[in-house]
Amino acid sequence: HTRTLLAGLVLLLLMSSASSAALIDGGEVHNDSRVLAWYDLGDGGVLTVDAGGAIVEHLWNLGLLQKVNQIDANVSVNAVRFDAAAGLIALGHDDGALVLSVTSGEVVRDIQTVDPVEHLDWDTGGDLWLVHNGGVRQAVEYGPNGPSGARTTVMSGGVATFLVLDDGRILTAGFDGTVLVHADDGTQEDQISGLGAA
After folding, report:
1. Which residue in 40, 52, 53, 179 has the fewest CB atoms around it within 10 Å?
2. In what side-by-side order are the strands of the sheet with 146-151?
3. Per-residue pLDDT tens digits for 23-80
4. Prediction pTM value
5. How far apart are CA 31 and CA 148, in angstroms?
6. Radius of gyration of the CA atoms of the chain, in A
7. Are 110 and 92 within 8 A, CB to CB?
8. CA-based nearest residue to 131, from 145, 116, 146
């Protein structure tokens, strides 16, 4: 019992000395709203996007993450995708999607839709696929001049998640536990079912 008591006292002393250690400032990362996305820019920079539409570029400087630039899209963001090669970031919101240039901060495209955009992703050709759960419950491709006409199969229970693969194929996963595999033009190629849940 004496050993147990002694071990407990040592542990208590260690904890109290650790809690009184001086804290260092790690830099301001993002504190305005819930961060939805974090992208490594590859040059020591980091890009964050929050739910309020703030796109913030940070840079590691002497071990601290410091804010370098901020773009305010002023929309309530549902989904985010960054195209590093093109320097574009797409934000899905309740009235459509905004595409912004990360370098200039300017809106490159403002896509208006009837239904909210819950998911989005860039395809291999640089077009943007927007997913709507309300109304159409499918992904729709948008080129630089608007909808291209390409669409995925409608998912009756709604789209739980969405992804464009590196080979151009498009996956829509439904709340019913079904995954639909589409060609790059939206034509359904396969269906995976029996997964049990979204």
Report:
1. 40
2. 119-122, 128-132, 138-143, 146-151
3. 444 444 444 568 899 998 888 889 999 999 999 999 988 888 889 999 999 999 999 9
4. 0.79
5. 38
6. 23
7. no
8. 116
